[in-house]
């Protein structure tokens, strides 16, 4: 300990911040009901256990039909259908759609058996139990497939995600009724001074009494920062009373805050009390800021302790600058900010005529500059808001906003901030496992094609793509085995049996690595047989399922005989597997993002990830 009364040097602001940060304030993980999760921070990653939506549904009001029945329909040549009934959202279909049938259907309703497309109502004319269709539709048109928004196994939200109405809505859609969150540190609040009187008691002005402003104000600040305040009665400037209050507070709380009795006056004894007691430790007394100079930092019986100045403005100023960041770090709550400037990463087209709010996500580039990228997946998609940080307003008279334009982003809430890592591209279980170990990840599973395009546009920190020699700096790569997941009735030994034996398939979504591998294999079969577009002869080629396991799960459900899949997907569903080759999977970073903390964390996670059967790491 230092000699009592010795002049101490004032700590600069950064030293004070570092000292408080190193106190080790922490919070325990707990589980809370989803109804109580607003404002909390996820303590563990969440992946989707169900598809959203869980069924193929109509994306428009109209008539559910068999697409093949509409071939040739047009304005001059309408085709008449028999109306087989009507379907509303939330009710199960009672009838199937047969040849020549059309079932009236509302947006969001379950697509009935037999139907594979919806003709919008504007392209039809109803006459009793007959309807004339004036449009040729293709399979899947105006239909939102099961898992199109979120698919089973998708990496949904990472540890460190602050839960807001948008992300709580996503968790609810996934069927999560309770979530693991970081705990809120208990913060003891003790105001000192003989002159302090609680607000509900009368004042003796002649004795110089004042109401205790600091206790309720600091408690409110603790709540805003994410902590749970614990009120202690104010104590006078008596040394023994202060010592007793500190001891009781340290036994109760994770952090002790006092206000008053910190300066050099004869009654300001906290600094010397903390310095001289055997169970206390004084780390600094005095910070080179105004207001807030007489600040004390230390430990009481091992519990972090900060002594704030007595004047309310000084106390709250020090709390905001020094203490709140430590509480937020323990709880995962960022500093508030409701508006920010950003550079638009890609152009935004707008037809004009209406005032528009474009949902955007934020990411920091390698120079720390904020970029904004549109994330709108449609008004019905939960992720349009859950993965957005704010909106950019586009005036009704503006048709086009170019890339590189400086824009103002109106943040959804004061918790919105760029993620530590923005990852875009293909779904993969090994990569998802690594991402689960990284906090504050935003993972947009848009497929290889989108990953390559976003990487070319300089948007994400990292892209997950398939194929050889991807652009960017490769962080990790694997050769992963792919093939066909087979149902019980599919006894295939070769790919060409899909054509020769009339085996039905469910395909992977366009733009994904699995789809690319399947298309390449079919193209090679074209060359082998000397004909083009052999895939047109594959039954169900145009029927797709979202999610990495989505096609294989449709096979397991008996909807098809085979589907492109990875070996682990087939094994997890108890399906036999016909291997067809390997595909290079690469995790690639933009070179100027390589030094970002989030990218560094991902590199460490990728190095230690447990590999799956059918995977071979490429050195």
Structural class: alpha/beta
> Mean pLDDT score, rounded?
87
The biggest sheet amounts to: 7 strands, mixed
Globular, elongated, flat, extended or rod-shaped: what is the shape? Answer: elongated
Number of strands: 36
Topology record:
Layout (H helix, E strand, L loop, with lengths): L12 H9 L7 E5 L12 E2 L9 E2 L3 E4 L13 E9 L13 E5 L11 E4 L3 E4 L2 E4 L9 E2 L10 E3 L7 H9 L4 E5 L3 E6 L4 E2 L12 E2 L2 H12 L2 E4 L7 H14 L2 E5 L10 H7 L3 E6 L10 E5 L2 E6 L3 H20 L7 E6 L3 E2 L6 E9 L5 E5 L8 H4 L3 E5 L5 E2 L4 E6 L9 E5 L3 H7 L5 E4 L3 H9 L5 E5 L6 E14 L10 H4 L6 E2 L4 H17 L14 E2 L4 H7 L5 E5 H6 L3 E14 L7 H11 L7 E3 L2
Parallel strand pairs: 5-6, 13-16, 13-17, 14-15, 17-20, 21-24, 28-29, 28-30, 32-33
Antiparallel strand pairs: 1-12, 2-11, 3-10, 4-6, 4-7, 5-9, 8-9, 18-19, 19-20, 21-27, 22-26, 23-24, 23-25, 25-27, 30-35, 31-34, 31-35, 31-36
Report on the architecture of this protein.
It is a single chain. With 619 residues, the protein is of the alpha/beta class. Helix content is 22%, strand content 28%. The chain contains 14 helices and 36 strands. The strands form ten sheets. Strands 28, 29, 30, 31, 34, 35 and 36 form a seven-stranded mixed beta sheet that branches. A six-stranded mixed beta sheet has the order 7-4-6-5-9-8, with no helix packed on it. A six-stranded mixed beta sheet has the order 16-13-17-20-19-18, with helices on both faces. The longest helix is centred in the middle third of the chain and has 20 residues. It is elongated, with a radius of gyration of 31 Å.
């Amino acid at each position: 300990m230092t000699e009592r009364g010795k002049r101490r040097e004032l700590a600069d602001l950064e030293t004070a911040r570092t000292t408080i940060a190193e106190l080790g304030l922490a919070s325990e993980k707990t589980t809370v009901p989803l109804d109580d999760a607003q404002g909390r921070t996820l303590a563990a990653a969440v992946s989707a256990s169900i598809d959203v939506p869980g069924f193929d549904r109509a994306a428009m009001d109209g008539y559910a039909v068999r697409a093949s029945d509409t071939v040739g329909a047009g304005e001059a040549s309408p085709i008449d259908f028999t109306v087989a009934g009507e379907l509303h959202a939330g009710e199960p279909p009672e009838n199937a759609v047969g040849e020549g049938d059309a079932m009236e259907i509302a947006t969001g309703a379950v697509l009935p058996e037999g139907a594979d497309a919806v003709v919008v109502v504007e392209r039809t004319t109803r006459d009793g139990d007959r309807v004339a269709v004036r449009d040729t539709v293709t399979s899947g048109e105006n239909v939102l497939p099961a898992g199109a928004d979120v698919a089973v196994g998708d990496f949904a939200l990472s540890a460190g995600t602050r839960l807001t109405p948008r992300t709580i809505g996503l968790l609810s859609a996934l069927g999560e009724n309770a979530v693991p969150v970081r705990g809120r540190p208990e913060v003891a609040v003790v105001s000192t001074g003989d002159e302090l009187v609680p607000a509900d008691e009368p004042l003796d002005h002649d004795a110089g009494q004042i109401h205790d402003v600091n206790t309720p104000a600091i408690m409110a600040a603790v709540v805003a920062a994410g902590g749970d305040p614990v009120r202690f009665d104010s104590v006078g400037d008596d040394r023994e009373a202060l010592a007793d209050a500190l001891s009781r507070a340290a036994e109760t709380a994770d952090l002790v805050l006092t206000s008053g009795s910190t300066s050099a006056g004869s009654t300001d004894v906290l600094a010397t009390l903390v310095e001289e007691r055997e169970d206390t430790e004084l780390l600094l007394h005095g910070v080179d800021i105004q207001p807030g100079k007489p600040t004390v930092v230390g430990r009481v019986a091992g519990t972090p302790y900060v002594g704030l100045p007595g004047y309310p403005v000084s106390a709250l100023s020090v709390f905001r600058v020094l203490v709140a960041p430590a509480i937020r770090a323990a709880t995962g709550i960022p500093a508030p900010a409701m508006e920010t400037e950003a550079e638009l990463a890609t152009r935004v087209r707008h037809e004009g005529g209406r005032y528009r709010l474009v949902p955007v996500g934020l990411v920091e580039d390698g120079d720390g500059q904020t970029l904004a990228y549109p994330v709108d997946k449609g008004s019905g998609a939960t992720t349009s808001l859950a993965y957005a940080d704010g909106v950019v307003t586009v005036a009704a008279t503006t048709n086009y906003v170019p890339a590189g334009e400086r824009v103002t982003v109106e943040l959804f809430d004061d918790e919105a901030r760029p993620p530590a890592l923005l990852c875009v591209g293909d779904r993969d279980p090994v990569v998802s496992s690594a991402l689960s170990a990284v906090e504050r990840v935003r993972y947009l599973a848009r497929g290889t094609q989108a990953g390559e395009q976003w990487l070319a546009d300089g948007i994400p920190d990292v892209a997950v793509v398939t194929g050889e020699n991807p652009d960017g700096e490769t962080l990790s790569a694997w050769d992963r085995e792919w093939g066909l997941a087979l149902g019980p009735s599919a006894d295939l030994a070769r790919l060409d049996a899909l054509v020769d034996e009339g085996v039905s398939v469910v395909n992977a979504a366009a733009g994904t690595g699995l789809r690319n591998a399947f298309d390449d294999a079919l193209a090679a079969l074209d060359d082998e047989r000397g004909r083009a577009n052999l895939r047109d002869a594959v039954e169900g080629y145009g029927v797709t399922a979202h999610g990495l396991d989505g096609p294989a799960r449709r096979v397991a459900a008996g909807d098809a005989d085979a589907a492109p899949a990875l070996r682990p997907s087939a094994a997890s569903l108890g399906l036999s597997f016909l291997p067809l080759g390997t595909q290079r999977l690469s995790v690639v970073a933009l070179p100027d993002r390589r030094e970002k903390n989030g990218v560094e964390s991902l590199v460490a996670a990728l190095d230690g990830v447990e590999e799956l059967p059918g995977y071979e790491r490429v050195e």
